Amino acid sequence: MAPDVEAALLVRLDDQGVVEDSGDYASETGVDHARLVEVIKSLVATDMITSEVVTHTKLVVTEEGKGYLAQGSPEAQVFNALPAEGAVPLAELKSKLPGTVGDVGFKQAMQQKWVVLNKEASGPTVSRKAASIEDSVQSALAEAEAGRAEGLAEKVVAALKKRKLLAPETWKTFRLGKGPRFARERVKEATDLTAEMIAKGTWREVPFKPYNFAALGLTPPSGHLHPLLKVRTAFRKIFLSMGFEEMPTNNYVESSFWNFDALFQPQQHPARDAHDTFFLTRPATTPASSLPPDYLARVRETHQSGGWGSAGYGYAWQEAEAEKNLLRTHTTAVSSRMLYRLAQGGFRPCKYFSIDRVFRNEAIDRTHLAEFHQVEGVVAAEGLTLGDLIGIFTEFFRRLGLPTLRFKPAYNPYTEPSMEIFSYSEPLGKWIEVGNSGMFRPEMLRPMGLPENVNVIAWGLSLERPTMILYGIDNIRDLFGHKVALSMVKSNPICRLGM
Ligand code: PHE
């Protein structure tokens, strides 16, 4: 339809020079005015026509006025509600009429001297004074509704405006003329200079579309990084800047041995229960024969009867339990493999980190999923103390943008002492738990073959928690898992983790 509207308008302008009023033109040609305005704008933008705004005002009957147009003015309704002879108590009269009609109508009818108020001992009553009335308000509203408001006396209009029964309505139309680039027919402007134009020389006459240097380019379709990946990158940078090396984390499936036994976690420990751990059915086990036999024997010995000042757990350690395959429940399984490897080819002090996925058979809610990511740091050196642990954390969390820390004693089967780490969150106005930590026990380190004076400090935290805080996401299911809206990934801001 649009080209026809445009073509017809150009022909009209060419024939008559001007279109005085786009509103009249629209109703005359049966075109929707809003549609016509779109055509006008596009013609003005290319300088084919000119336009001037024409502002119109007319009086229209308000919603309240429309009600009286049908029912009569409030004063007429009051008059009509009274009997020809006799009086009605004022309260009863008002209650018979809807809304404010009784109040407004009574006042107006008194002013018009259509009714009188009688002071009786039992209370005020109202009776008719005029024999008959003429509802001039209703007839004035009818005139206005019929579009003849101009014919009404100024005084009448002023009174009806004051009573909010008439109100001015304004709208805009356009006066149109020919522009500097007017043409009876729109010529499509060329956007490209072609070889043909040059060969034929037509480029001299062809109108070219001017460049629009202010136009925004299209956003190139591209990949977007998930918030977890951005925060992971930030964590990685912090670790690397502090001299940590990344551990290989590419095995979601672990044997119970590395996930639990190597960590001196007893075989009856509740965390091993199938309620917390996803055990594999195929392949269900990693044969103990694939593990270094001497290390396996030392782990068994330590669980059963201790060593290095420990009494052990005093139970019969089962190889079959250690062989069970599972989805790793923490990245400390990765750390135990690395520390064992470190103890083999001669010890050197080192700092390791890992950031990867772990799995727990948990009930899913706003803050828990059955899989999430852990960030883990491990430092091994001679003579480390709890002071080193606190010092390293303080630096790590400071670089993360969490400078105010508190430590609380905690328990892990593989660390002693153990501490939960809390950070004061200014925006939340409270202490929040940000991590768990400790010094690995001799029962874990010595069977691996690490020298007696070597201590290992470690800590772990989830990647999801700081990400949710940074991105203002309060339901973990909006961040991770199959219910995530892809638009969240596209529109979330660049991470600004303090460093
Ligand atoms: N593995 C612990 C957890 O899953 C975190 C931790 C890592 C604690 C290292 C102490 C030392 O919560």
TrEMBL record:
Catalytic class of the enzyme: ligase
Domain Aminoacyl-transfer RNA synthetases class-II family profile stretches: 230-493
E.C. number(s) listed in UniProt: 6.1.1.20
Entries under CDD domains matching the protein: PheRS_alpha_core
Cofactor: Mg(2+)
Location of this chain's protein in the cell: Cytoplasm
InterPro entries tied to this protein: aa-tRNA-synth_II, aa-tRNA-synth_II/BPL/LPL, Phe-tRNA-synth_IIc_asu, Phenylalanyl-tRNA_Synthase, PheRS_DBD1, PheRS_DBD3
Annotated GO CC locations: cytosol; phenylalanine-tRNA ligase complex
Keyword terms: Aminoacyl-tRNA synthetase, ATP-binding, Cytoplasm, Ligase, Magnesium, Metal-binding, Nucleotide-binding, Protein biosynthesis
Family named by the database record: Belongs to the class-II aminoacyl-tRNA synthetase family. Phe-tRNA synthetase alpha subunit type 2 subfamily.
A GO molecular-function annotation: phenylalanine-tRNA ligase activity
Reaction it catalyzes: tRNA(Phe) + L-phenylalanine + ATP = L-phenylalanyl-tRNA(Phe) + AMP + diphosphate + H(+)
Quaternary structure and partners: Tetramer of two alpha and two beta subunits.
PROSITE patterns per the UniProt record, alphabetical: AA_TRNA_LIGASE_II (PS50862)
Gene Ontology BP, a term: phenylalanyl-tRNA aminoacylation
Top-rank lineage group of the source organism: Eukaryota
Protein name listed in UniProt: phenylalanine--tRNA ligase
SUPFAM superfamilies: Class II aaRS and biotin synthetases
